[in-house]
Protein backbone atom coordinates (compact mmCIF):
# COMPACT_ATOMS: atom_id res chain seq x y z
CA UNK A 1 0.00 0.00 0.00
CA UNK A 2 1.41 3.42 -0.93
CA UNK A 3 2.43 5.59 2.01
CA UNK A 4 -0.42 7.61 3.38
CA UNK A 5 -0.17 11.32 2.60
CA UNK A 6 -1.55 13.86 5.07
CA UNK A 7 -2.49 17.39 4.01
CA UNK A 8 -1.73 19.84 6.81
CA UNK A 9 -4.71 22.03 5.91
CA UNK A 10 -4.63 23.92 9.22
CA UNK A 11 -0.96 24.83 8.86
CA UNK A 12 -1.32 25.66 5.17
CA UNK A 13 -4.26 27.88 6.10
CA UNK A 14 -5.87 28.31 2.70
CA UNK A 15 -9.53 29.14 2.13
CA UNK A 16 -12.68 27.44 3.37
CA UNK A 17 -15.34 27.22 0.67
CA UNK A 18 -18.84 26.44 1.92
CA UNK A 19 -21.47 24.87 -0.33
CA UNK A 20 -25.07 25.66 0.57
CA UNK A 21 -28.39 23.88 0.07
CA UNK A 22 -26.75 20.74 -1.31
CA UNK A 23 -29.35 18.53 0.43
CA UNK A 24 -32.91 19.00 -0.80
CA UNK A 25 -34.54 18.49 2.62
CA UNK A 26 -32.32 21.07 4.24
CA UNK A 27 -33.23 23.68 1.61
CA UNK A 28 -36.90 22.88 2.25
CA UNK A 29 -36.64 23.04 6.07
CA UNK A 30 -35.39 26.65 5.91
CA UNK A 31 -37.89 27.59 3.19
CA UNK A 32 -35.05 28.16 0.75
CA UNK A 33 -35.28 27.40 -2.97
CA UNK A 34 -33.68 24.18 -4.18
CA UNK A 35 -30.79 25.49 -6.27
CA UNK A 36 -30.26 24.52 -9.90
CA UNK A 37 -26.54 25.07 -9.37
CA UNK A 38 -24.34 25.23 -6.25
CA UNK A 39 -24.49 28.23 -3.94
CA UNK A 40 -21.11 28.92 -2.30
CA UNK A 41 -19.63 31.20 0.34
CA UNK A 42 -16.24 31.67 2.02
CA UNK A 43 -15.34 31.24 5.68
CA UNK A 44 -12.06 32.64 7.05
CA UNK A 45 -9.52 30.17 8.44
CA UNK A 46 -9.66 32.23 11.67
CA UNK A 47 -12.97 30.39 12.26
CA UNK A 48 -11.25 27.01 12.75
CA UNK A 49 -11.38 25.37 16.16
CA UNK A 50 -10.69 21.78 17.24
CA UNK A 51 -12.02 19.58 20.02
CA UNK A 52 -11.18 21.08 23.42
CA UNK A 53 -12.04 24.58 22.28
CA UNK A 54 -15.53 26.07 22.70
CA UNK A 55 -18.00 27.41 20.18
CA UNK A 56 -18.58 31.04 21.16
CA UNK A 57 -21.91 32.64 20.31
CA UNK A 58 -21.25 36.15 18.94
CA UNK A 59 -22.92 38.92 20.94
CA UNK A 60 -26.38 40.07 19.83
CA UNK A 61 -26.97 36.66 18.19
CA UNK A 62 -30.56 35.53 18.63
CA UNK A 63 -30.19 32.26 16.72
CA UNK A 64 -26.99 30.22 16.19
CA UNK A 65 -27.48 27.00 14.21
CA UNK A 66 -25.48 23.78 14.02
CA UNK A 67 -24.75 22.27 10.60
CA UNK A 68 -22.80 18.99 10.48
CA UNK A 69 -20.94 18.51 7.21
CA UNK A 70 -18.37 16.40 5.37
CA UNK A 71 -15.31 18.54 4.63
CA UNK A 72 -13.14 17.73 1.62
CA UNK A 73 -9.48 18.70 1.85
CA UNK A 74 -7.83 19.57 -1.46
CA UNK A 75 -4.37 18.18 -2.18
CA UNK A 76 -3.74 18.70 -5.89
CA UNK A 77 -4.44 22.31 -6.90
CA UNK A 78 -6.38 23.11 -10.04
CA UNK A 79 -8.61 25.39 -12.05
CA UNK A 80 -11.41 24.40 -14.42
CA UNK A 81 -11.11 20.84 -13.13
CA UNK A 82 -13.12 18.32 -15.18
CA UNK A 83 -15.71 16.50 -13.06
CA UNK A 84 -14.28 13.18 -14.23
CA UNK A 85 -10.90 13.91 -12.66
CA UNK A 86 -12.08 15.92 -9.64
CA UNK A 87 -11.74 13.06 -7.15
CA UNK A 88 -8.01 13.00 -7.94
CA UNK A 89 -7.69 16.44 -6.33
CA UNK A 90 -8.99 15.20 -2.95
CA UNK A 91 -6.27 14.82 -0.33
CA UNK A 92 -8.53 13.72 2.51
CA UNK A 93 -11.48 14.76 4.64
CA UNK A 94 -12.63 16.21 7.94
CA UNK A 95 -15.82 16.10 9.96
CA UNK A 96 -16.84 19.75 10.23
CA UNK A 97 -19.52 22.05 11.63
CA UNK A 98 -20.61 25.01 9.54
CA UNK A 99 -21.88 27.02 12.53
CA UNK A 100 -24.18 29.73 11.24
CA UNK A 101 -25.45 32.94 12.80
CA UNK A 102 -29.00 32.85 11.43
CA UNK A 103 -29.74 36.29 12.84
CA UNK A 104 -27.02 37.80 10.66
CA UNK A 105 -27.85 35.51 7.75
CA UNK A 106 -31.49 36.65 7.71
CA UNK A 107 -30.40 40.30 7.76
CA UNK A 108 -27.97 39.62 4.91
CA UNK A 109 -30.61 37.82 2.82
CA UNK A 110 -33.05 40.73 3.23
CA UNK A 111 -30.38 43.31 2.32
CA UNK A 112 -28.84 41.27 -0.50
CA UNK A 113 -25.52 41.19 1.35
CA UNK A 114 -23.00 38.34 1.60
CA UNK A 115 -23.04 35.73 4.36
CA UNK A 116 -19.47 36.45 5.48
CA UNK A 117 -20.49 37.70 8.94
CA UNK A 118 -23.13 34.97 9.40
CA UNK A 119 -20.62 32.26 8.52
CA UNK A 120 -17.25 33.80 9.39
CA UNK A 121 -17.23 34.54 13.13
CA UNK A 122 -14.47 33.12 15.35
CA UNK A 123 -15.16 29.42 16.22
CA UNK A 124 -17.62 29.06 13.30
CA UNK A 125 -15.72 26.11 11.78
CA UNK A 126 -15.04 23.27 14.25
CA UNK A 127 -13.11 20.46 12.52
CA UNK A 128 -11.92 16.96 13.35
CA UNK A 129 -8.47 15.56 12.77
CA UNK A 130 -7.43 15.04 9.18
CA UNK A 131 -9.03 11.89 7.73
CA UNK A 132 -6.91 9.98 5.23
CA UNK A 133 -8.46 9.18 1.84
CA UNK A 134 -8.32 5.43 2.49
CA UNK A 135 -10.34 5.83 5.71
CA UNK A 136 -13.46 6.67 3.71
CA UNK A 137 -14.30 4.01 1.14
CA UNK A 138 -17.06 6.00 -0.63
CA UNK A 139 -17.25 9.76 -0.11
CA UNK A 140 -20.75 9.68 -1.57
CA UNK A 141 -21.98 7.32 1.14
CA UNK A 142 -20.90 8.91 4.42
CA UNK A 143 -23.10 8.98 7.50
CA UNK A 144 -23.21 12.30 9.37
CA UNK A 145 -24.92 12.57 12.76
CA UNK A 146 -25.27 15.37 15.29
CA UNK A 147 -26.72 15.48 18.80
CA UNK A 148 -27.42 18.45 21.04
CA UNK A 149 -27.36 17.57 24.75
CA UNK A 150 -27.65 13.88 23.80
CA UNK A 151 -30.71 14.36 21.56
CA UNK A 152 -30.24 13.35 17.91
CA UNK A 153 -30.90 16.34 15.67
CA UNK A 154 -29.20 15.51 12.33
CA UNK A 155 -28.85 12.06 10.80
CA UNK A 156 -27.91 12.33 7.15
CA UNK A 157 -25.81 10.71 4.45
CA UNK A 158 -23.85 12.23 1.57
CA UNK A 159 -25.69 9.88 -0.80
CA UNK A 160 -28.61 12.34 -0.52
CA UNK A 161 -26.69 15.32 -1.86
CA UNK A 162 -28.23 17.17 -4.84
CA UNK A 163 -24.78 17.81 -6.34
CA UNK A 164 -22.05 15.17 -6.21
CA UNK A 165 -18.73 15.99 -4.56
CA UNK A 166 -16.82 15.74 -7.89
CA UNK A 167 -19.36 18.11 -9.42
CA UNK A 168 -18.89 20.58 -6.53
CA UNK A 169 -15.09 20.46 -6.86
CA UNK A 170 -15.32 21.00 -10.64
CA UNK A 171 -17.94 23.74 -10.41
CA UNK A 172 -16.06 25.69 -7.70
CA UNK A 173 -12.74 25.33 -9.58
CA UNK A 174 -14.32 26.98 -12.65
CA UNK A 175 -15.02 30.07 -10.51
CA UNK A 176 -11.90 30.20 -8.32
CA UNK A 177 -8.67 28.24 -8.32
CA UNK A 178 -8.53 25.47 -5.76
CA UNK A 179 -5.25 25.32 -3.86
CA UNK A 180 -3.42 22.72 -1.79
CA UNK A 181 -4.90 22.89 1.72
CA UNK A 182 -8.28 24.36 0.78
CA UNK A 183 -11.28 22.94 2.63
CA UNK A 184 -14.65 22.51 0.92
CA UNK A 185 -17.62 22.19 3.29
CA UNK A 186 -20.02 20.11 1.21
CA UNK A 187 -23.29 21.18 2.84
CA UNK A 188 -25.50 19.97 5.66
CA UNK A 189 -28.31 17.38 5.79
CA UNK A 190 -31.70 18.32 7.29
CA UNK A 191 -32.29 18.74 11.03
CA UNK A 192 -30.41 22.01 11.63
CA UNK A 193 -31.46 23.97 14.68
CA UNK A 194 -30.44 26.44 17.38
CA UNK A 195 -27.87 25.97 20.11
CA UNK A 196 -27.54 28.02 23.29
CA UNK A 197 -24.83 28.73 25.86
CA UNK A 198 -24.35 25.65 28.04
CA UNK A 199 -25.29 23.19 25.28
CA UNK A 200 -23.04 20.33 24.19
CA UNK A 201 -22.81 19.33 20.53
CA UNK A 202 -21.69 15.79 19.65
CA UNK A 203 -21.19 14.78 16.04
CA UNK A 204 -19.94 11.75 14.16
CA UNK A 205 -18.81 10.58 10.73
CA UNK A 206 -19.47 6.91 10.02
CA UNK A 207 -18.07 4.91 12.95
CA UNK A 208 -14.75 6.61 12.33
CA UNK A 209 -14.89 10.05 13.93
CA UNK A 210 -16.68 11.43 16.98
CA UNK A 211 -16.16 14.90 18.41
CA UNK A 212 -17.92 17.16 20.86
CA UNK A 213 -17.94 20.86 21.56
CA UNK A 214 -19.47 22.94 24.31
CA UNK A 215 -21.23 26.17 23.47
CA UNK A 216 -20.56 29.38 25.37
CA UNK A 217 -21.68 32.97 25.12
CA UNK A 218 -19.09 35.73 24.71
CA UNK A 219 -19.58 36.89 28.31
CA UNK A 220 -18.70 33.39 29.56
CA UNK A 221 -15.12 33.60 28.24
C1 LIG B 1 -28.65 28.47 4.52
C2 LIG B 1 -27.32 27.87 4.75
O1 LIG B 1 -26.58 28.32 5.62
C3 LIG B 1 -26.93 26.74 3.86
C4 LIG B 1 -25.75 25.89 4.28
O2 LIG B 1 -24.75 26.34 4.85
C5 LIG B 1 -25.83 24.46 3.97
O3 LIG B 1 -24.94 23.71 4.47
O4 LIG B 1 -26.75 24.06 3.22
MG1 LIG C 1 -23.54 24.71 5.64
UniProtKB/TrEMBL annotation:
Please verify whether the record's keywords include Phosphoprotein: no
Catalytic reactions on record: a 3-acylpyruvate + H2O = a carboxylate + pyruvate + H(+); 3-fumarylpyruvate + H2O = fumarate + pyruvate + H(+); oxaloacetate = enol-oxaloacetate; acetylpyruvate + H2O = acetate + pyruvate + H(+)
Supply the InterPro entries for this chain. Answer: Fumarylacetoacetase-like_C (IPR011234), Fumarylacetoacetase_C_sf (IPR036663)
Annotated ranges, domain Fumarylacetoacetase-like C-terminal: 15-215
Please tell me whether the keyword Nucleotide-binding is annotated for this protein.
Answer: no
Q: Name one Pfam family in it.
A: FAA_hydrolase
Show the Gene3D superfamilies listed in the entry: Fumarylacetoacetase-like, C-terminal domain
Q: Which GO terms describe its biological process?
A: carboxylic acid metabolic process
According to the UniProt entry, its GO molecular function terms are: acetylpyruvate hydrolase activity; acylpyruvate hydrolase activity; metal ion binding; oxaloacetate decarboxylase activity; oxaloacetate tautomerase activity
- GO CC aspect terms: mitochondrion
Q: Which UniProt keywords apply?
A: Metal-binding
Q: Which residues form a coiled coil?
A: none
Top-level taxonomic group: Eukaryota
Q: Where would one find the signal peptide in this protein?
A: none
Name of the protein in question: Oxaloacetate tautomerase FAHD1, mitochondrial
Taxonomy, top ranks, is: Eukaryota, Metazoa, Spiralia, Lophotrochozoa, Annelida
Name the gene.
20210590
